[in-house]
Write a structure and sequence with these properties.
Elements lengths: L3 H7 L2 H19 L13 E7 L5 H17 L4 E9 L2 E8 L5 H14 L12 E4 L15 E5 L2 E5 L6
Antiparallel strand pairs: 1-3, 1-4, 2-3, 5-6
């Protein structure tokens, strides 16, 4: 029985029975799988928000945001740091490696911000450090833009700025 393909051609019933058995086993296993429309996904991330009423964005960036970024960069397992600055508000998002415990990561960020609190301007409100929760929310958003044209009562979506 060196040549399996030649044997299977001479005896087609065993390969067909094996194929049907494996297909049925796969269908039964698939039907028994737990499928969740909203899976429990947790990304370890923290958000630092510091408010200084009336401060210009350039002030916020130099006096607050850069110092906060430098402080949280020293925390372990940091994957990325993203900041935004608006008038009177500085926000910093800190994303950690996936295996990092979220509570410990948020506490580490809170400690890092507390260490630099004396270096920050006096007019700021108390820094808010919170956990970024994405549980139960959508993972991605998609949008489609176009023109809708009705021909014989059937709506069609067309691309571009063409006039009908």
């Amino acid at each position: 029985m060196r040549n399996i393909s030649a044997w299977a051609i001479r005896n087609p019933v065993p390969p067909i029975v094996l194929f049907i058995a494996l297909t049925l086993a796969g269908l039964i296993a698939f039907a028994g799988m737990d499928i969740n429309q909203m899976p429990d996904i947790s990304f370890p991330a923290a958000h630092v928000e510091i408010t200084q009423p009336g401060a210009a964005p350039t002030e916020m960036e130099t006096q607050i945001t850069r110092k906060v970024e430098a402080a949280v960069a020293s925390v372990g397992n940091v994957k990325s740091i993203t900041s935004y600055v608006t008038e009177g508000t500085s926000g910093t998002n800190v994303e950690f490696q996936l295996k990092t415990p979220v509570d410990r990561a948020v506490n580490d960020v809170r400690d890092a911000v507390a260490k630099i609190r004396s270096d920050l301007p006096e007019g700021i409100l108390e820094p808010q450090v919170s956990r970024l929760d994405v549980d139960g929310g959508p993972i991605a958003y998609y949008s489609i833009e176009g023109l809708i044209e009705s021909v014989f009562g059937i709506d069609k979506v067309r691309e571009g700025d063409e006039h009908f």
